[in-house]
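#onboarding

Welcome to the new folks! Below is a worked example of what a typical request in this channel looks like: someone posts a single protein sequence, and someone else replies with the predicted structure as tokens. Don't worry about understanding the tokens yet, we'll cover that in week two.

Example request:
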Amino acid sequence: GLAGAAAEACRAPRTDAGARLRLASGGLEPAALLFGEAASRALVTCRPEDLPRVLEAAGRAFVPAAVVGMVTPGRLTVEVDGKTLVDLAVSRIREVWHGGLDPVAG
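Example response:
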């Protein structure tokens, strides 16, 4: 889902890049919006100056596209309908991702 893709992008080595996503639920439950795999979606990043070209290319390919956030330093925050649902330090995302099930599996 979208939240998993964003968290995965934030764990890239040698960077402190996070993201701030602002989403509208569109009637979906937050869990479905953030973690659902039902619809084909892609999370794409680009430099701000490249945004018009990215959106234009999507339009030419008849691919719906929307700006849902921006790259920020150090944290992943996700807001849905103005309410913050995720607010994590990138360092914490990496720690949990790399630790996996170690704390519970021994």
